[in-house]
Amino acid sequence: MTLISVENLCVSYQTKKGVLKAVDDISFELEEGRSLGFVGESGCGKTTLGMALMRLLPENGRVTRGRILYGGQDLVQLSDKGIREVRWNEIAMIFQAAMNALNPVHRVDAQLREAIATHEPGISKEALQGRVEALFDLVEMPRERMRAYPHQFSGGMKQRAVIAMALACNPKLVIADEPTTALDVIVQDQILQEIRSIQDRMNISVIFISHDIAVVANVCHDIAVMYAGQIVEFGSREEVFNTPIHPYTRLLLTSYLTLEGDRPAPLEMIGRTPDLIAAPTGCRFYKMCPHASAMCENRAPEYRQATPTHRALCSLTS
Amino acid sequence: MAAIESKTIMRLNGISKTYKASTGLFGDSGQRVIALNDVSLEIGRGEIFGLVGQSGSGKTTMGRLVVKLENPDKGSIRLGDDEVGHLKGAGLKAFRMKVQMIFQDPYQSLNPHLSILDTIAEPLAIHGKGSRRDRRDKVMKSLEVVGMSPGTDYLYRYPHQLSGGQRQRVAIARAMVLKPEFVVADEPASMLDATIAIQLFRLLLDIRERHGVTFLFITHNLAAARYLCDRIAVIHQGEIVETGKTEEIIRAPQHAYTRRLIAAQPKFAYGGAEGKAR
Amino acid sequence: MSNLSERVHLFDRLAKGWAIFRENLLGKIGLTLLVLFALMAVASFFTPLFGPMYDPMTGVDPLISHATGPGWRHWLGTDFIGRDIFTQLLEGAKIAFMVGLSAAFISIVLGTIVGMLAGYMGGFVDMLLMRLADMIMVMPSLLILLLLAALFGQLNIWLIVLLIALLRWPGVSRVIRAQTLTLKERPFIEAAKVAGASHIRIIFRHIMPNVLPLSFLYMTFRVTSAILVEAALAFLGFGDPSQVSWGMMLQWVWKTGHMFQAPYWLLPPGICISLITLSFYMLGRAMDEVLDPRLRKEEFSE
């Protein structure tokens, strides 16, 4: 069953130099209990997308078009009161550099209690305590550490605390924006396993945002590759990794260094990411695409369906 | 009779370094953090040597000791045949012409008030090399080496006008301008996108090929070390747990920690096997 | 060709700075007022051309020898012995700029160098310099100046400037020291060390350009305090009697009992003191925005 459906979403920022279209015409669907990964490099719009889904854009950002359909409502049109009810109760977020999201002067269990109590005002003290303990168990943090302060935790523990915060109100969807970026690879592995395990146990949907394609590959059923504000490829993990269509996806895959396989020969990148204030009319990847033709420069590409679940934004055949 | 050039360019012997932990309310709390504990390494001329470790392993401290930003508490560092531990004054300055560093954060390692020309020319100016015109030529050549052509496009720009990848190239150009023998690269690509990072790595390989520079590549990413390095040392909590040829270590890790590192690496192969079983 | 590109780029940066400045209302008002005062100060050089009657100190109008109101001969009237008030006002502008800018400049140079040295060298040097700064900072500068004036008789204006500067550098040195401490750890400073830069080079080529914006900001504050101190000294009768400053004018108004009889004489210098102080402050606030490094956004070329 479809949990969230995004249709033709456009998000822009007002900057001194003009209007910057950070997210341009994004559409996707996410089923209950499935996870979707957004992969792309800096400036592709993935973080903006995550924030837009929660209606947490900064002052100068706005959704200019499109709908975000959740629970029969369009989140874009929802009132402030309405979105506050959805936030955290239904959709929760793990922010980038989330470890800094913990208040250093409050104990961790107190912060968890506050998160729950804010969204469930009538809850009793005993019930609150029970919930907090359950959360600690859920993220496999020892209960003895409950009364600690954030700075007494290691990076991995802080991240678990932040995950616990996100799960505090039993959301149906969690948006995780680069949750493991600042962590060592061994701790990262543990956290990713944690996320996968929680997802399985609680049947939560996850939207996972990362620049690291391998991390996304480990956690997500489906992958959306983003470039310059657009989804350039969308498909299941197997489809995107085994049969990538879009040249940018292939570039990303070859740029990723692994411990097995041959040493990749990187493609020469001659261009720069396009200006999103005066976006080009043709394909945005034109300048860097090794297969580009004259047609690509002038004509905006359309989605080609390779399979019912796999599509790419490219004009080239084969 | 020509001197036989030693194949080892850098020899580290019994290096130890301790830091005082944050002081208590009334002064030194007495807590000490052992950053490095009796570390020994040998790096061959023209090698790209990888020091692989996670945060807190001591790898960054190692890099700083090698370029003499700090001095070890115990142990010796030899560049070629010379002991460099007690260098001061002119001797230290001469050392600095031979050993350089590329820093991790491209957004902080360039002085925001200096133009690219001034930034790259700085080492030349410090060591009094050539006239202003000579230096400008050398800077142009350096920019070409790092793939920023035509150099004239970049000379008068300022760091905030460049992307992270470009800034890092400028940092490399600055490190190369004195034609050093040995360069420490401290996580040079960890703050860059993967597609930019791999180009930077290619650049380092290229520089090694053409100019015979030896690199100490410090990283937390074993896969990056595999791409770049001939030999690696795995460092954990201030100690070297394993050293050897990169491929051998990855194929047949001897130490438990190395095995954990390898197991934790997110795996997938392009066009091949999948990630871990769900 | 290289010099041309350099000049073009410098101009480009100045133009950008100006553009940001222009958008700031406070800055515009402050700058306008200051330009006005500067014009007054410049005009004071030309007043003797209008005749000996218009000399601020000695120019006594032969026809008038008492305080009179504004009129055609004397735009703001005359003081108690018939000297033109408007010329005195212009002269006061010159003195204000002279005193303000010199005292501020000297104290900023001192404070910046001390701050950088203390922050960069740390340890004993730091402790010594900061204890010295602390001692001077707690001294009441106006009181000390008054005491010195009382001890040595009237003080020469340049001596006043020097003393103000010597008593006021600690404030800026603390701020510069704090800034230096954070800069010291930045990678680009370490890169300079690795390249072989000497301490002097690092301080003056790498640290100084990064603290100068802060220095300039504090300079605007110092200018206001210097002007006020000089005005206070002059008003209390301890200024340089050979200089016609606004404070001195106020002293004359008060001493000769014209406080309530001659508003045309009392008000102009008082208003000028307030306005020039205000305008320097507004300028400082606007410059803060121009020079703030946070404004250097991540701009990509192309």
What's the rounded overall pLDDT mean of chain B?
Answer: 88
Give the percentage of residues in beta strands of chain B. Answer: 15-25%
Strand residue percentage of chain C: under 5%
Could you report the average pLDDT of chain C, rounded to the nearest whole number? 83
Number of helices of chain B: 9
CA radius of gyration of chain C: 23 Å
Q: Could you tell me the radius of gyration of chain B in angstroms?
A: 20 Å
Succession of helices and strands of chain C: HHHHHHHHHH
| Assembly annotation | heterotrimer
Unreliable stretches covering 5 or more consecutive residues of chain C: 295-302
> What structural class is derived from the secondary structure elements of chain B?
alpha/beta
Features:
heterotrimer, A: 318 residues, alpha/beta, eight-stranded mixed β-sheet, four-stranded antiparallel β-sheet, C: 302 residues, 10 helices, 72% helix, globular, disordered C terminus
Describe this structure in words.
The complex is a heterotrimer of chains A (318), B (278) and C (302). Chain A is of the alpha/beta class and 318 residues long. Chain A is 31% helix and 26% strand. Chain A has helices spanning 46-53, 80-86, 108-119, 125-138, 155-167, 185-202, 213-219, 237-242, 247-255, 294-298; strands spanning 2-15, 18-31, 35-39, 61-70, 73-74, 91-94, 173-177, 205-210, 222-227, 230-236, 303-307, 310-313. In chain A, a hairpin with a 2-residue loop joins strand 1 (2-15) and strand 2 (18-31). In chain A, helix 3 packs across helix 4 (125-138) and helix 5 runs parallel beside helix 6. The longest helix of chain A has 18 residues, at 185-202. In chain B, the strands form two sheets. Chain B has a six-stranded mixed β-sheet with strand order 6-7-8-3-9-10, sandwiched between helices. Chain B has a four-stranded antiparallel β-sheet with strand order 2-1-4-5, covered by helices on one side. The model of chain B is unreliable at 270-278 (pLDDT under 50). Chain B starts with 7 loop residues before the first strand and ends in a 14-residue tail after the last helix. Chain C is mainly α. Chain C is built from ten helices and no strands. The longest helix of chain C has 37 residues, at 85-121. Chain C is globular. Mean pLDDT of chain C is 83; it is low at 295-302. The chains are: A alpha/beta (318), B alpha/beta (278), C mainly alpha (302). Chains in contact: A-B, B-C. Chains B and C meet through helix 2, strand 6 and helix 3 of B and helix 1, helix 7 and helix 8 of C.
